[in-house]
Every structure is written in C-alpha cells, then in structure tokens.
Design brief:
heterotrimer, A mainly alpha (415), B mainly alpha (322), C alpha+beta (586), A: 415 residues, mainly alpha, two-stranded antiparallel sheet, 2 strands, 68% helix, elongated, C: 586 residues, alpha+beta, 5-stranded mixed sheet, 19 helices, 19% strand, globular
Chain lengths: 415, 322, 586
C-alpha cells in the first residue's frame, strides 16, 4: 500500500517534504491522491468490501441457485416456516413436476430402455411410465441409494441421462440455511435474489437520479438568471414535499393509464413491471439533492479566477466545461450518487414494506419484510434477516460515500 | 429585515399554492375514487348506487373544477368532510395532529439530547476509538430501515422482555390521576420515540460532529485559548455557537423526514397519529383529509426553512438581511 | 482519582441512570400478561378502521361488526345461518298468513305485516316503532345522502303504519319474491332524534350525515336500543361501551366492552399476549397468524381459545371468458384439475378452511357434492396435461406449453395486494399451474383499485382471485346472470366478471327468484350449480373461515361465518362460570 500512498506514514511524509517534493507532486496524479485519501478511511474500505460482496452475490445469484440446487420460486407448502438450518425433502407433487420437466427436456428413450433392461421399477410398467413409477415407488432417500448401486449404462446417451437424473433426485433433498418462509420457499436463496433486486433498484435509481440532477443542476448553475430561479424553486418545492407520502400516492398510480400508447408501454405487463415502476418513481423524487450540489459547485467554480484566466486565455466554453467544470462537478456528484444508492434502497424497502413496492413473487428485502410482518412472533428470523441485510448494505454505501467525500474534499487533501 | 421576511412569505405562499395543485392532481391520477371503496365494501351495492354517489360527491366533474371547489372551501375556513370517517376533517385530524406533535416533538428533543453531546464528544476526540464508535452508531442510525427497527424493538421490549406496550397511544382505563395518565402516555411513547429517533440521532450526530470539527479548527479558537479563556467557555461560546448554524438548518430540514418517518412508525406501533391517518386516507382516496395533511406538512417544512434562514442571523452576527 | 477510574465511574453512572429510567417508565404489570378478564370488562382488538355508527350510512365492515353491539334489525341471520326475527315479533311468511300475494294495478306484488317487539325501546325510553323504520326508509330514498346500497330499502314500495299501534306496519313490496322477509340490512333510525336533523339539513348534499347525532353526539343513549350503548368513541383509536339498561332482551353479562383499533396484526398479537387486550375479533388476525397462534396456545397452555368457522365467503378465480385462450372449456377444466385444493387447504390452512366445489357453501341448505348432480374435478395433473394436450397446447423443453402458432400458454393472475392469504394462495396456484406448463404472471393491486376498476370494469384479461360473500339460499343473479356482465352500456352493473353467457342459467335464475315452493327451488339451484361446475367460468378454491381469539373462559360466544357477526349475540357472551352467575341472581 505504501507504494501507492507514500504520504501515509510519517517517514514518508518527511521524505516528501524533502528536496524532491516538487517532482513528487508532479508525478502524482489526482486520482492517486484521492485513492490514497480514500484508503485511509478504514470504514469506507470495509464498506467497499461489503458492497463488493453483495454485488458479487447479486451477480452470481443464478450460479448460487444452480450450485445449491435452490430456486427462489420453488415452494413446498408442507414445509412452511422451517427453522434455520433444516433439511427438507420435496413433496410428492414437486417430485412429479421435476421428473416431468426432466422427461420433457430431451429424448430419454435410451435411459428408459436402460431402466427397463434392469427390470426397474418392476414388472408390467410401460415405457412412458418407467421413470414416474420409479420415483413414486421409492422414497427419495431409498431412490438415491438405489441409483448409486446401478451399473454403468453402456449407451453414452443413457449414461448422460443417468447422471442428469441423479442430479434431479439429489435435488429432491435441500438444505435451508435460513429456514423457509410462509410458502416453504428457501429464505437463503430468496435473500440472494432479493439482494439482486434491491441493489439493482438502488444502483439504477441513484445513477439515473444523479444524471437528472446533473442535467438540472448544470443548466441552473451555468445559465443562471431566470432558468436558475425556476429550476431551483421547483427543486426546493419538491424537497419540501413529504417524500414518503408522495411516493405512496405515486406508487398507486396505474402505470398503464399514464404510459398508454407511448413507447414505454412495454413496461406494463413486463415480468418486472413493479421493479421498473419502482425505479422510475424513486428517480422522479430523488434527484433534487444532486441538482443542488451540482449547481452549488458550478456556481462556486464559475466565479473562480482560474476560469476567468482560462477564458482570458481564449478557451472556448466547451473546453472550460470539459476541462474545469466537469471534473469539479463529478466529485460532489459521485458522493451524491453513492449516498443516493443507500437512500433508494431504504425507500424501496419502505414502500415494499407497506405493500406498495415490488410485487410478489419477485423477492426484494422490503417485500420479504412485508411478508414476515404478520408472523414476526412465530418466525422472527424472517423479519430480522432482510432488515440486517438492508442495514449492512446501506451502512456500507453511506460509509463509502463518506469516504469519497473526505477523499475529494480539497480541504482535507494532504499532499 | 421586514422586507426580506415579506418577500420570503410571498414566495412561500406561491409555492404552497402550486404544490397544493400538484398534490391534488397526483391524487386524482390514482385509479378509483372514494365511491369505489364504499361499493367494494358492500356486496349489495349496484352500479346505479355508484353513479348516484359519484354525482352526490361531485366526482363526475373535471379535476380543475374539483380543485377550485376545494380551494374555495378551504378559503371559506371549512376544511371539509372526511368521507372515510364521516366526520369533519378538523375532528378527524385534530386529535391525531396533536398526537403526532407529541411523538415527533419528543423524538426531536430526545434525539437532540443524545446526538448533540455525542457529536461534540466525537468531534473533540476526532480519530479516537470513541469517534469511531459514535460514527458507527450514527451511520447505523441513518442506514437502518425505521420499520425494521420498530419491529425489532417490539420483539425485544414488548414480546421477549415485556417492558412496554407493543402498540397503541394510551391505555383505555378509568380513574387515572393526571400523573398516572401522563406515565401511561410515556409508556406508550417510549418505543415509537426510540424507533423514530434512530434516524434523526444519526443525522444530527454527523452534522454536529462535522460542524464542531470545523468550528474548532478556526483561528479564533486558538486565539481564545491563547487569551487564557476557560476551556468550557471556549467550547460553548466559540466552538458550539458556530457549530449551531448548520445544525439549525438540518433540524429545520428534517421536519419533513420526521413526518415521513411518522407514517411508518405510527403504522407499526398502531399510534393514533396523523401519519397513519394520511396513509389510510390516501389508500381510501379520502381527498379532504389527505390534502389538508399534505398542506400542513408542506407549510411546516417551508416555514421551517424560512425560520432556519432567519435564525442564522441570531446564531451568526455576520449575516444580515437586506 | 485517576482519569480512567473517573471515566469508569461516569460510565457506570450513566448505565445506572439509563436502567432506572427504563424501569421507571416500564409497566411491570405487563410481565404477568395481565389478569384474566372478568365480566366487569372485556377488551377486544380489531385491525380495521371504523366510522360513526349511523347504520344507514355506515360502509366499513368494522362498523358493521360494532353496529350489532348497539343496535338490532328486524330480521337476523343467527350463528347457525338460520333466519330469525330479532326486533320483529315474528317472521312474516305466506304460511303464517302475515304475508299475502296481492295484485296492484295488474302487477303481482306482496304485502307483509311486521310487528316490532313491545319491549324494544331506545336508550332514552322512547319505544322503537314503525316510524323509525319508515324514517330510515325515507333517508335511504334521499339522493342527498351517501348510502352505499339502497336495494334493501327500495324493494319496499310503501310502508303503512297501523294508526292504532305504531309498533305494527305493513310493507308493500315492489315485486313478489320468496325471500322478501330477509331484511337483515333494513335498519331502524331513531326518528324522534334524527328526523329534525334530516328535516333541517336533508336538502344539502351530505347535510344529514354531517349533522346526524351519530356524528355530532355519538354518546347520546337515545341512538341505541341494543344490549350496549356507547360511552366514548374515538375514531381511529377506540370505542367504549356499557350495558344498556333499556335493552329489550336479557341483559348482557359483561358490564363494559372496550374495542381497540390496532391496525398492525403483529402488534395486535403482541398486545394480546401482554394482556392489553383480551380478545381478537373476527376482523383481526390473518388466517396464517391464527393457525400459528393456535399452535402456540396448545404448546404453551395460554389462556386463549382460537376459533375457526367456515363461512359464506367463497374464494375463487374468475376467468375472463373473452380471452380466446380461456374460451376453450378444456383449458378451463385443465386449470381446475391442476389445482390440489385439498392439499392447499391442508397445507396452508391446516384443514380449517374447506375446499370449494362451487359457489354454494357447505353450510347452505342448497349445498351438494354429489358427483351425479354436479361436475367434480379431483386433483389430477395427468388429467390436466391430457386436456391441454387435447386442446393443442404442447409442452416444450422449457417446461411451458405452446400452441401451433408458437404462442405460450400465458395467464395473468391478479388479486388484492396486501391480503396475505390471497398472496400465498396466488403463488401456490402459480406453482401448480406452472407444473402443467402454464406461464402465470402475478400482478396485484390495492383493494381499492382491484375492486373499483379492475374487476368492476372487467379490466383484466386473464384471471382474478377474490371472494364473493353470500348468505344461505342466495340467488346468484348478480354473479351468474348474463345481464349482469359489467359493461359501459349497463353502467358497469353486475358481478358476472367472467362474462359467462348461458341462456339456460339465465332462465333458471329468473325462475328461481319467483318460485315460492322450497323443494322446487332446491332443484333449480342444483341445476344452476351443475351448469356452473360443468362450464367452469370460475375456478372454485375454498370457503373462507372466520377466525377470532377469545379468552378461554368466554362462553356463549360463537363465530357466525357470515355478515352478521358474533356481536349479534353479545348479550350471551359470558366470562364467568354460568353456575356462579345464576347463584348471584335473585
């Protein structure tokens, strides 16, 4: 770490104060300074690690699902509200469905012949019924043992099918790390998918809100005058609204009616309609802080001598904006976006908690809490876990935001 | 000074007017109307009934006409009639407004009482272990979902360790003396106040700390120390006084979050306050109640912003209004 | 003293003060869970909002629950789902001669004589008379009063009061229908108090309801004639009632009732366990919660009884028959076959809510499950798959079914957001229909939108899940008659949401309405059920059960399972052993 941030220890500081200080400063680009500052904020780094972890979980959700054999939508009403860390066998119905899926997923004739050849599952069973009967006649545990003792099939197709079938049968039994919910769905995998939804909503909202804020803020800041007055009054007015109340109203609005025949009509009826709706709604009411920040920094930069100097030197508007204003605006915007992610996650959770946000069966941390509400005294973990995840994620984003702010704050930069 | 206040007042009034239309319009965008609610609850109601009622309530008119009627009604000093409760809005709102003020006021006082000393303490020990812990606590405060903390508090202190009632506003009991009924109210307030305070404590601690660090870094602190003033005096007269300015802004601005927070807190704790009432009236399309509550909240926030601006002058002699 | 030592003492001090504060404000009474309730007071928790108790104007279900504590109606439906005279001395029927078929201007009409109990008086001593009936009837006919449903009143064309005895009157009914005497929502209003208000404000829109004494002076004893009267009402919070000394029947056992509104079901349960409430009404716990609570009660021996009673609420899925995909009866039958209703009821409801075969409840005398009379669909995935294969929907390797055009078999399933049980059932259905290759999309809406727009105006293209409420032997005209398909043309009236058109059923319904012979009615009703189950315009799911939690010591209480709640026999509720109460009596 010292290689990147030589100014970190006292020894290095003293060295930096030495004769080659000038050269040293020149050699150190801005981002390195900022990075150095950021790394000093231990909690921010920890936050970044946590976020990285959650991002990985979100991205790898399908992989986790495949590896563990768990499915966020798969329910088993015979095993509802299972305690933390329990094993459970799929119901007969579920086994039948999964076997049917297996049979329909390809040509299984070779496999069926192979089983018939072994005299399984018993005399007088037609070829179509072979696999079904095999599963219905044996308990899953028994079946697993049986499959292990079968001889290797000669036919390569049958060999492949057998392996596949073994996997299907193996997945009849599943382990519920965090127990199951009101429909017997695995809480762990739902939390994983919930991470995906909640973080996606958070990221999208913050990025889009940041963009709107940048647009509004820079228009207001750069043009000033009447544009500024109007835009800023709108911003202030929106800021004075009780946001949650407005969100409750807006989330009740029928998207189909508003979008009508516009090109956005595809959102209605989309599988993730409620997610998209949530993102749009949250965006509409969370860009104001960013806009104010951007405007503020543009105003302060506009008046500074180096802009004047640049202008006197003949720099065009475009150059001034690109070379001087943008870099100075990016920093506060970055902070606003990072903090915005946390806020968006909280708002999504609050709305979903009230039953107005993400709709089932898509899991999000907020609607898992909503579902857990009734049974909180009987199954407290269902309520505690999603809340903890929200807390960890949001606190991490807030720490990172804080770290970024500290790092780019010119007053706290130590060279 | 007076001119400034007047100008601000006029601006504020214009914004309130515009926002009232904005809110009214938003509410009409919600599908359904109050009649649907009545009809849905009654299996015997027919569409003829719905038509009759819609006409009776003037719901067959366009938005701007309805809005204008509403404005005229408000201007005449009548806040209207709640279709949900079938009582005048003042009656539906009055009691719960008071309850929410008690809840929010207590929460505000409590969080300031906790947050300001913590913030100052952390600022004076910047970088120490204390600072880290206080910071962590503050960050947790602003990051925790308020409904979750409410659920956890109920689980902990009403179910597992039954110290406080799990929800409600006050006991329905008779023959309580003034002291007992006050104590009873306090018991019901403890958990909601705690849950509502988490967020604001977090916010205030962070601002107090930042403002205090900034204030204490000023040269005049060094000067005052050099003059030999007592440490406490420096802390209060020079450090804290200057740290107050940003804190006031934050407190003024946080009124809108208190209100939003109240919705969830009151819903979970079954507290009879205005937040829950607003939530219900929105869900039931009870325009009159929701609009009045909206207006109260918006006005409060805007007025608070104004007051914050004015208070700057008190806290910072360098600011003048012209 | 050293610095660390001082700090330690300071810390200890803070902790001490904090602990003291916690204990000072806590209520140790909560630790014990509260003493068992006695007949001096019973505190009941409800989760739904209530309004003022003007019976003609009330529209919330919680108000309907509370109403029966303070007021009564001519006729009621008792806990065994039988029609009984309540305020009336006797139910008029053709058989007992109190009702007569008449002809007025060539129209067949019906007349019935009603007599109000002699002892029935309002709380201020004024007798309840036919003038009170007439006044309610007048109010209901005003177009300046917002009353949700006026049908119950408007079927009566004229009320003739006996000049000699105002307790007696004759109703002239607009049409001659056999169910004319089931006036359980024909309320009485205290004319001696309310008529002046109505005369003063009745001509302003909503004027009467805003000035009604039920709004302005709700604790006026003259407004109530039931077993209890109101001593305190705080909307959005609570209601306190005391025994009404002028009640015409046996005086109630419990002196005081306190009804507390706790909207959050989790909080409600916490309050029950801590003893701040003694009982949870049928408008309280979610079904799931009640089942779990029952397990707790059994395991920990808590002093509560969890009551379940199957009722007349029929949960079902309406299919939009205008959807080409659902026009094929084989597809609809496959959808029914695919659902394991017994499994659903066992697994999700612990067997406490019975699976449904059709819209008639097992508690209804018209009910039948005879496979010779109606079509019955036992759970069978294979049968469902076979029917879908036959209908031309083939399963592809992705597990979904497609038709020859390559369209996926897709269904949008909607219900009310926030209704826990429905949401669970919905996901269960999604899973089971997914099992036969149907791609089910869920889209839920708040009840207001769902009932106000989506179902009322048939704005759904797939399936909607909700409940119909009915009473025993109710005629399914509004739900099954083809004239009751909501459309722009008929002003969105009717509840035939599937859009089911079956001329035979229309004819049967029309016949059923005017058939005065009970056996013939039964036959007609069963024929309708046969058409209904054969054609599957609607997928039956289950009959909802009412749940409530009562103190273990409460006797005389029985859930009803229909719109007339258990509060209708509140005077029989008793928290003390019956023998002891009798010994105390002179």
């Amino acid at each position: 770490m010292n290689a990147v941030v030589p100014g970190r220890t006292d020894g290095a500081g003293r060295r930096a104060a030495g004769s080659d200080r000038q050269k040293y400063l020149e050699a150190r680009p801005m981002w390195k300074i900022v990075l150095g500052q950021f790394v000093e904020h231990r909690m921010a780094v920890a936050g970044l690690i946590v976020i990285g972890f959650f991002l990985a979980v979100a991205l790898l959700a399908p992989v986790i699902s495949a590896v563990t054999g768990l499915d966020p939508a798969r329910q088993n009403v015979l095993a509802r509200y299972q305690p933390v860390g329990s094993w459970e066998e799929a119901s007969a119905y579920q086994r039948e469905v999964r076997v049917e899926r297996f049979l329909r997923a390809g040509d299984r004739r070779a496999f069926e012949d192979y089983l018939l050849g072994l005299g399984l599952p018993g005399p007088g069973v037609g070829r179509e019924e072979v696999v079904f009967e095999l599963v219905t006649r044996h308990e899953p545990g028994e079946l697993r043992t049986l499959l292990r003792t079968l001889p290797e099939p000669g036919d390569p197709a049958a060999r492949q099918d057998l392996a596949e079938f073994e996997r299907v049968v193996r997945d009849f039994r599943s382990f519920h790390l965090f127990g199951t919910d009101e429909l017997g769905r695995d809480v762990f995998i739902r939390l994983v998918y919930g991470t995906r939804v909640s973080i996606t909503v958070g990221l999208l909202v913050a990025l889009m809100a940041g963009f709107i804020g940048l647009l509004v803020g820079s228009l207001a800041g750069y043009y000033g005058g009447r544009v500024d007055t109007v835009l800023m009054r709108v911003t202030d007015a929106l800021l004075s609204l009780p946001i949650l109340v407005v969100l409750i109203v807006v989330s009740a609005i029928d998207l189909g009616k508003v979008l009508g025949d516009t090109p956005f009509a595809f959102i209605v009826d989309h599988q993730y309609e409620s997610v998209i709706k949530m993102v749009i709604i949250l965006c509409l009411f969370s860009w104001m802080q960013a806009a104010r920040l951007v405007r503020g920094s543009i105003l302060s930069i506009k008046e500074q001598e180096f802009i004047l100097a640049a202008r006197v030197l003949g720099a065009r508007d475009r150059t001034i904006i690109a070379a001087h204003i943008v870099p100075n605006v990016i920093a506060p915007l970055l902070v606003a976006v990072t903090l915005g992610i946390g806020n968006a996650i909280l708002f999504e959770a609050a709305l979903s908690f009230l039953g107005l946000g993400i709709q089932p069966p898509t899991p999000s941390w907020g609607n898992m809490l909503h579902n857990a509400q009734d049974m909180v005294q009987h199954a407290p973990m269902l309520a505690v876990l999603p809340g903890l995840l929200i807390l960890f994620t949001v606190i991490s984003f807030n720490y990172v935001g804080d770290g970024v702010r500290d790092a780019i704050d010119p007053r706290s930069i130590r060279r | 000074m007076t001119a400034y206040i007047l100008r601000r007042l006029v601006q504020t009034l214009v914004v309130i007017g515009l926002l009232s239309f904005f809110c009214y319009y938003l509410m009409t965008l919600m599908p359904g109307d109050p009649i649907d609610e009545m009809i849905a609850a009654n299996p015997f109601a027919t569409s003829a009934d719905a038509e009759r009622l819609r006409q009776l309530h003037g719901l067959d008119q366009p938005v701007h006409v309805r809005y204008w009627n509403w404005v005229k009604m408000i201007a005449s000093g009548d806040l209207g009639y709640s279709r949900t409760y079938r009582v005048p809005v003042t009656e539906a709102l009055g009691k719960s407004l008071l309850n929410t003020s008690i809840l929010a006021g207590t929460a505000l006082a409590f969080s300031l009482l906790v947050a300001v000393p913590l913030g100052v303490w952390a600022a004076l020990r910047k970088g120490s272990r204390v600072d880290y812990l206080v910071n962590l606590f503050a960050f947790a405060g602003i990051s925790v979902p308020s409904f979750w903390i409410a659920i956890v508090l109920i689980l902990l202190f009403a179910v597992y360790i039954p110290l406080y009632p799990a929800g409600g506003t006050q006991s329905i009991a008779f023959g309580l003396g003034p002291w007992e009924s006050l104590l009873d109210r306090v018991q019901y307030l403890v958990l909601p106040v705690l849950s509502l305070s988490f967020l604001s404590i977090g916010t205030y601690v962070r601002y107090t700390r930042a403002a205090m660090i900034e204030a204490m870094a000023n040269d005049y602190i060094r000067t005052a120390r050099a003059k030999g003033l007592s440490w406490n005096r420096i802390l209060i007269m020079h450090g804290f006084r200057n740290a107050l300015i940003p804190l006031i802004t934050v407190i003024a601005l946080s009124f809108s979050t208190l209100f939003s927070g109240a919705i969830i807190t009151e819903t979970v704790f079954a507290y009879d306050g205005v937040g829950r009432l607003v939530f219900l009236s929105i869900q039931r399309n009870d325009f009159n109640v929701a609009m009045v509550a909206f207006m109260i909240s918006v006005t409060m926030v805007l007025v608070m912003n104004m007051i914050a601006d004015l208070l700057y002058g008190v806290a910072d002699p360098r600011i003048t209004y012209s | 003293m050293t610095r660390p030592a001082r700090r330690r003492i300071a810390t200890a001090g803070i902790v001490l003060v904090a602990t003291l504060a916690v204990y000072a404000f806590s209520r140790p009474g909560h630790l014990g869970g509260g003493a068992p309730p006695t007949n001096s007071r019973l505190t009941i928790g409800i989760t739904q909002e209530f309004e003022n108790l003007n019976p003609v104007i009330m529209s919330m279900s919680a108000t309907a629950y509370l109403f029966r504590l303070v007021n009564r109606t001519l006729v009621t439906l008792d806990e065994n789902a039988e029609w009984k005279a309540q305020l009336a001395v006797e139910l008029p029927t053709l058989e007992n001669g109190l009702a007569r078929l008449v002809e007025v201007d060539g129209q067949p009409k019906l007349e019935a004589d009603w007599e109000i109990r002699e002892a029935a008086t309002w709380g201020d001593g004024t007798p309840v008379t036919c003038h009170d009936l007439e006044f309610a009837w007048e109010v209901a006919h005003s177009d300046k009063v917002s009353i949700a449903s006026v049908e119950m009143y408007r079927q009566v064309e004229e009320i003739r009061i006996d000049p000699a005895n105002p307790k007696r009157c004759t109703f002239l009914y607009r049409e001659a229908k056999w169910n004319f005497n089931r006036l359980f929502q024909f309320y009485v209003l205290p004319a001696h108090l309310e008529r002046p208000v109505f005369e003063a404000y009745g001509d302003q829109p909503e004027g009467y309801e805003q000035h009604s004494l039920y709004t302005r002076d709700p604790t006026n004893p003259g407004l109530y004639h039931g077993p209890y009267r109101i001593t305190e009402i705080k909307l959005g919070s609570h209601l306190i009632l005391e025994r009404n000394p002028t009640f015409y029947g046996d005086p109630a056992h419990i002196e005081q009732l306190v009804i507390v509104l706790i909207p959050n079901t989790g909080t409600l349960e916490a309050n029950l366990r801590s003893g701040s409430i003694n009982m949870v009404s049928e408008l309280g716990m979610s079904f799931d919660q009640a089942v779990a609570f029952q397990a707790r009660v059994d395991a920990e021996g808590l002093p509560f009884k969890v009551n379940f009673k199957p009722g007349f609420l029929y949960e079902h899925v309406d299919l939009n028959l205008d959807n080409p995909l659902l026009q094929d009866v084989n597809v609809r039958r496959a959808l029914v076959y695919a659902i394991d209703r017994d499994g659903l009821c066992d697994a999700l409801f612990a067997g406490k809510q019975p699976p449904a075969l059709h819209y008639v409840s097992p508690r209804d005398p018209w009910y039948t499950d005879d496979p010779d009379r109606i079509a019955v669909y036992p759970h069978s995935r294979r049968e469902a798959s076979r029917l879908l294969d036959e209908a031309g929907w083939w399963m592809r390797p992705d597990g979904y079914r497609y038709n020859a055009q390559g369209e996926r078999l897709r269904l949008k399933l909607m219900t009310t957001a926030g209704n826990k049980v429905r949401e669970i059932v919905e996901v269960y259905l999604q899973d089971q229909w997914g099992g036969i290759g149907v791609d089910v999309r869920i889209q839920n809406e708040p009840a207001r939108i769902f009932f106000g727009e989506t179902t009322r105006k048939r704005k759904f293209d797939g399936a909607v899940m909700y409940a119909w409420t009915s009473s025993p032997e109710s005629i399914p005209r509004s739900t099954l008659h083809s004239g009751m398909i909501p459309s722009e043309a008929n002003g969105w009236s009717g509840q035939n949401q599937p859009g089911w058109v079956k001329p035979e059923v229309d004819a049967l319904i029309e016949e059923l309405e005017v058939e005065f012979d009970a056996d013939r009615r039964l036959e007609l009703a069963r024929q309708i059920m046969d058409h209904y189950t054969g054609d599957v315009p609607v997928i039956p799911l289950y009959y909802r059960s009412e749940v409530s939690v009562t103190p273990a010591s409460l006797t005389g209480y029985s859930l009803t399972g229909h719109q007339v709640h258990a509060t209708d026999h509140v005077e029989r509720w008793n928290l003390e052993p019956v023998a002891a109460a009798e010994r105390g009596a002179p």
